[in-house]
Amino acid sequence: MNECILVVDDDPEIVNAIAITLEREGWQVLKAYNGMEALDHALNPEVRLILIDVMMPRLDGLSALIRIRERRNLPVIVLSAKSEDTDKILGLSMGADDYVTKPYNPQELVARVRSQLRRYTLLGDIHTAEREGVLVNGRLTYDASERVLRADGDVVKLTATETKIVDLLFRNLGRVFPAEELYRRVWNEEGYACENTVMVHIRRIREKVELNPKEPDYIKVVWGIGYKMERHGA
Amino acid sequence: MDTKWNGTEPENGGEVEHFVAAQVRQTIEPETAEETAPKRRGQAAGAVIGFLAFVIGVSLTLGSLGAMAERRLMQRGAEPDWSGDWQNTQEFRDEVSSYLMEFLSLGATGTTGNAWYQTAEAWDVAEAGGWRRQYTEIILKDTAAESRPVEGEEEALTAGEAEGENAYRTGDQNVLYLIMQDGHIRYKNVEADSAKPFRDQSLEGYNFYLTYQDGKASIFKDGVELDVYGDGIYVSGKSPWFIPGYENLQAGEWLDGATVYMAVRKEPARYWFQDSGGGRYYYGRMYQVAQRAEEARTFYIRQLVLLGLGALWLCVWLAFRREKKLADAKIASWTGRLWEEVWVLLALIPLGWLFAADGWQELYWACREIWWGWEPVYMGQLAYGAASFLLSSLPGLIALGWVLYLAFNNRRYNPREQRKSLLRSLFRMARSLLRTLRMKDLERPVEKRLNRDNGLVLALLLLGFTCSLFAAAVALELMMRNHWSVEKWLLLLAGCVVEGALILSIVRTFRHRRLPQDLGRLNRQIESIRAGDLSTPLDLPEDADLRKTAEALNDIQAGMKTALAEQTRSERMKVELISNVSHDLKTPLTSILSYAELLRQEDLPPAAADYARIIDEKAQRLKTMVQDVFEVSKAAADQLPVSMERLDLGKLLRQTLADLDDPIQKSGLTFKTDLPAEPVMIDADGKRLYRVFQNLIDNALRYALEGSRVYLTLKTAERAAETAGLARVSVRNTSRDELPEGVDFTARFVRGDESRTDGGSGLGLSIASSFTEACGGTFQVETVADLFTAVVTFPLAETEQEAER
After folding, report:
1. pLDDT in the model for residue B99
2. What is the pLDDT of residues B626-676, one digit of tens each?
3. Average model confidence (pLDDT) for chain B?
4. Which of residues 131-170 of A touch B (CB under 8 A)?
5. Which pLDDT tens digit goes with each residue over B702-715?
6. Distance in angstroms (rounded) separating the CA atoms of residues B259 and B93
7. Angle (CA) B436 B440 B445, round 5°
8. Which in A152, B36, B164, B590 has the greatest CB count within 10 A?
9. Which contacts of B355-358 are long-range, i.e. CB under 8 A and separated by 24 or more positions?
């Protein structure tokens, strides 16, 4: 594939470490050390994805992101030490496709890069696949008629029960299901003390679907209320 | 010493056994509650018996004792006569003595009125230094006894008939007499013309014979001669017979030659006669003596029987005294419903009874004497007065006693706040009414209140001024009429001073009319500063009284404004600092972690690979710590964003347990949970609260003794009238290591284990604590020996309102 990835960070050691990790996965890496350099490289058509830090000299990551977005449509992952919800929301609303906090987990970073690239390259496919009964939520698509869940275009192998849960959650994006209701609708039984059972299945689905199952983006617990599938932009 | 120790040991052992047995009994007893039901019924019966016995016993005992005391004190009725022989009483002896006196007088002078014994020569035997003579003249009273010539006697009683006896002819035949002077019969009420029947003691039905001859008396009772004079010296109040013939009590010379025979009937009869109006008058001196003796005897016997009965009942009470206390408590629970004033009213009834009995007069006189001047002797009088007052109406006294008993019983069992009192509640009502009025008044602006008060004062002053002017004019007019003196000048001067003071007061009050307005403005300014307005200063006129105060307030306002700005700035700087430090720590940490990871992927010699692993692990821990420090610092700076929502705390706990199921299973600890099935709704940030319980469970997993049990419970306290309901989660576990004492576990970087070699950041409980508080709950840690307890408390959300909606 040899897609080229632009890595931007004012700390050369970090850039280097990311570059090594990504190159090991078979990608080419372009390096930049501030926002201005990033702008220069971003126009390079070889670049398919940008990993960019926020706090940088000369031009900060978010400003650079806005300028890049004016010229090009390509996935951008923001990589920042700012880990608060407000920072994440700000980054995502500025046009970032994903937000990874430092210190990052290398495997997770690779997974997120891969996910973004696949979605980007498969974008055309997804659009053509937008037919009756196919639901799209971020990097996940669910074919309701065939009961097939895809993550970044790949079919996720689910058991019958897991499929029922995904089916219920996907058809009701954002709605919170108490464990009892989930149990009743999936197992067709009254659920008493079913929290553990539900949680086990949720955890399994997360391991198959989420990039970082410990910090899930899609299948979330609403503490003290229930479970839900978070709604994501396309 | 050894033997002594040995000796005490079994005793101690016995005590312990006894104690254990008592404990066992205590624990068993609640289970055998059904068996105690009949016992309780028995107790109720015992209570009734005990109380009745107490009431009856005390009433009888006190009643009989009081009645006897009253009789003795008031000297009412005759002396008791235990043998039942009425002729053996002092009253009888006195009566005989007075009969003799009358007969002697009759014999000598023809009337009973002026008989007296002369030259009563009393020797005080005990007086050292010889005999001392005391002359006493005892003048005999003119008693109720009539003159009885033989002829006149019949007339005295002709109007009536004797009961049982034919008194028509002989008059009062209870006492027969024959009075002779110098050998001639002067008076008699017997048929016989000589003293023979008297001397022979042969009168039928008469058993008491007295013969007075030659200045000496001899008495035969039932044929036996009595010792009349004893040692021959009359001692007042001691010698039984007040009859002449003692060495110091002789008949006067004019009684020489008098001889009196008298006989008294064994069983005296009662006489009566009818007056012109048809009413019956009873008569019979000896009959009365006999009757009174009999009455006294029966009275004392009756009282003693009652006393015995009372004592018997008191014994019953002693046997049931424990149960009687139950009755007391029960009665107190009834009387507790009464107003306390009822007791005063109830006590007034027997008190009125006592006063109605006239006994108070003695007390009143005693008090009056004392009022005029205190003498120690009055003490006795006072005591006598008090006693006669109290004893004057025994039923009243006993009733008063029981009213007081009930009142004190009521006080004893009912605490003050439970007792009802009409006066107290009225007083409370009045006070709360006044307070409401005052509060209502306080709601009005201060200047209005002051203006009103000032207006009132001004009006009063003007009124006073007008009145005093009028008074002064009248006084001046009156003074002008007469000539002038120094006093009048002084009076005029005083009047001028008063008028001047009044005028000054009026002027001052008028001048201060602007003060209330300024005060009002000042008040409002303070209110608005409190509400947060720090920019508008208060501008009072230059000459205002409160100008200085207003300026001071403006300074405070300005100071507050600066301080607030300063504080906001420093707060912001603090948060920025935390944020920056966190960022600056994370950047190198990212490099470390990245390269550690790369290093681990390299093909390293085993030792180097191990080093790389250690670096990676420690860097991971550093990462957690940095994250935790950041969150705790934000929470400490009150900058922790929380999104509150209504959630079920029980569900959250179940979810947390399910989420941490893996590490719990692996830990080998047993989690004992007690979570209610129904929802426990609170308002909190679910994510933060999850961290709280995650940290608590994590803490238990990390520090609990291997294989021990961890208890996680959720309890709710019901919503009371004023306090909101509470949800209380507690996590309890037994610590593996000894818990140090006096350590605040919620402080940052505190761990039970001081060496800090475990994987924790030392911030778990600190985060739990600050997150709980950020969500509006309270977090507490208690350690007792090795038992570690964390308690998270949240107010329950208002569910009733939702239900209504």
Report:
1. 82
2. 888 888 888 877 778 888 889 889 889 998 998 888 888 888 888 888 888
3. 78
4. none
5. 888 888 889 999 98
6. 19
7. 150
8. B590
9. B356/B393, B357/B392, B357/B393, B357/B396, B358/B392
pLDDT of residue B474 exceeding 70: yes
**Residue A73: what residue type?**
N
- Alpha-carbon span B428 to B550, nearest angstrom: 41
* Distance of alpha carbon B619 from alpha carbon B612, whole angstroms: 10
CB B201 within 8 A of CB B220: yes
What CATH number has the domain bearing residue A66?
Answer: 3.40.50.2300
pLDDT confidence of residue B158: 36
Is A82 in the same domain as A13?
yes
Nearest CB neighbour to A17, from listed B591, B623, B684: B591
Report whether pLDDT(B279) > 50. Answer: yes
**DSSP letters along B12-48, please?**
HHHHHHHHHHHHHHHHHGGGGGGGHHHHHHHHHHHHH
**Mean pLDDT, rounded, of chain A:** 85
Sign of CA dihedral A177, A179, A184, A185: positive
Give the tokens for residue B797.
């959300």
* Shortest Cα–Cα distance, B578 to chain A (Å): 12
**Residue B763: C-alpha distances to residues B254, B619, B696, B788 (Å):** 130, 17, 11, 17
Domain termination residue (choose one: A82, A97, A121) = A121
ipTM above 0.90, yes or no: no
Mean pLDDT for the stretch of residues B287-292: 84
Query: Which stretch of A40-54, B313-327, B364-378 has the lowest confidence by average pLDDT?
Result: B364-378
Q: For chain B, what are the domain ranges?
A: 2-41, 86-147+175-267, 446-525, 562-639, 641-804
pLDDT, position B311? 94
H or E segment to which residue A207 belongs: helix A195-209
B655/A179 Cβ within 8 A: yes
The residue among B760 and B517 whose pLDDT is bigger is: B517
Tell me the pLDDT tens digit for each residue of A136-188. 888 888 888 888 888 888 888 989 889 999 989 988 888 999 888 888 888 88
Residue contacts between A and B (CB atoms, under 8 Å): 99
Instruction: Enter the tokens of residue A118.
Output: 């696949």
The domain B562-639 having CATH identifier 1.10.287: the answer here is yes
CB A209 within 8 A of CB A218: yes
Name the residue with higher pLDDT: B186 or B137: B186
Q: Is A89 an 8 Å CB contact of chain B?
A: no
Nearest one of B337, B654, A92 to A100, comparing CA atoms: A92
Place of tokens 């991971």: B620
Instruction: Decide which of A78, A96, A121 is a domain's last residue.
Output: A121
Q: What is the pLDDT of residue B760?
A: 60
What single DSSP character describes residue B278?
Answer: S
pTM of the model: 0.49
Residues B549, B556: Cα–Cα separation, whole Å: 11
Strand, helix or coil for residue B433: helix
Q: Mark yes or no for CB contact A200/B658 under 8 Å.
A: yes
**Contact, B154 vs B146, CB < 8 A?**
no
| B547-601 helix and B606-636 helix, angle to the nearest 10 degrees | 160
Distances from the Cα of B152 to the Cαs of A222, B145, B156, B258, in angstroms? 131, 13, 6, 21
Partners of residue A82 in chain B, C-beta under 8 Å = 579, 583
How many domains does one find in chain A? 2
Enclosing domain of residue A94: 4-121
Strand order, beta sheet including B216-221: B184-188, B175-181, B258-265, B206-213, B216-221, B224-226
A81 touches chain B (CB under 8 A): yes
Exposure of B504 by Cβ count < 10 A (0-12 exposed, 13-18 middle, 19+ buried)?
A: exposed
Topology adopted by domain B641-804: Heat Shock Protein 90 (3.30.565)
